Amino acid sequence: MKEPEILVIGISSRALFDLGQSHAIFEAEGLQAYADYQMKNEDQHLKPGVAFPLVRKLLALNEDEVDHPGVEVILLSRNSADTGLRIFNTIEHYGLNIERAAFTGGESPYKYMEAYDADLLLSTNAGDVRKALEKGYAAATILPGRSSDRDSGQLRIAFDGDAVIFGDEAERVFQESGLEAFSDSEREAAAQPLSGGPFKPVLEALHKIQSAYPIEGNPIRTALVTARSAPAHKRVVLTLREWGIRIDEALFLGGRSKGEFLKTFGADIFFDDQQVHIESAKVHVTSAHVPTGVANEVK
Question: Is the pLDDT of residue 290 over 80?
Fold first, then answer.
């Protein structure tokens, strides 16, 4: 059993480190060539991947003397134990406190989420992410892109609202009936809290860690970055108040592109259910697609 309320995050090796060269060998020459290459180079340390800065900041939360639930990062990899040795050597090189791992030899590692009591899966494999979401876990596909240029040392995480933090009932009205019907529906239901989406537990866990520190100088800063605008903002604010969760910044963009706003916020990662917003964001910050909700249903 995990420690009470600790935030446990499973991450794939390709999200944590740059395995582009070895993956290209796998695709061009097959598994045996890939294995030979990894074992031959197991003492050559890998370069950081797109999610490396995020993981480093998450683990740094455990290094102070403040009493909070804490964070654990677990490596979930399709490598074998032999080919995974290079990855663990690299983890040791960078001083990352990652002690647990599952090397599944080509099979999907997401199946060990329950055994590890994990709360969140970050992976470059979209199939694994979808399966984890179907099982009720928070999960997102880390996409190629760039990390934020703004680094204050503070962990900064940004979320979309509908189908990510919240359920997709409001987004479903918009997709099926249009903006006017959506605005009318949200105005009428302003006092009725939205249901929780797949990332509500992650936001709750972050909030509990935040709450152990003063608001000023807090090591974590969160943002809601949503295409909503007035009057649809009111239901969002009242829902978060009902949940007892603080969001440090809330950006209601009214359909504006999210990329520049996320660049200004300096997000270490941004979660969104819609590819159009991910395409805008990943130019500026590490971005992850949450393939759930009405926007991701097969038409």
Answer: yes
- The DSSP line for 37-104 is HHHHTTTSPPPB-TTHHHHHHHHHGGGSS-----EEEEEEESS-HHHHHHHHHHHHHHT-----EEE-
> What's the N-to-C CA distance of the chain in angstroms?
41
Number of domains in the chain: 2
Residues noted as catalytic:
160
Which residue, of 94, 119, 142, is where some domain finishes?
142
> 203 is in which domain, residue-wise?
155-292
**pTM to 2 decimal places:** 0.92
Whether 219 and 274 map to the same domain: the answer is yes
Write out pLDDT tens, residues 222-258.
999 998 887 778 889 999 999 999 899 999 998 899 9
Work out the angle at residue 127's Cα, subtended by the Cα atoms of residues 122 and 129, and round it to the nearest 5 degrees: 30
Same domain for 126 and 33: yes
pLDDT average, residue stretch 68-92: 90
CATH number, domain of 205, equals: 3.40.50.1000
105-159: pLDDT as tens digits:
888 888 999 999 999 999 999 999 999 999 999 999 998 776 666 667 899 999 9
Structure tokens at 187: 């105005």
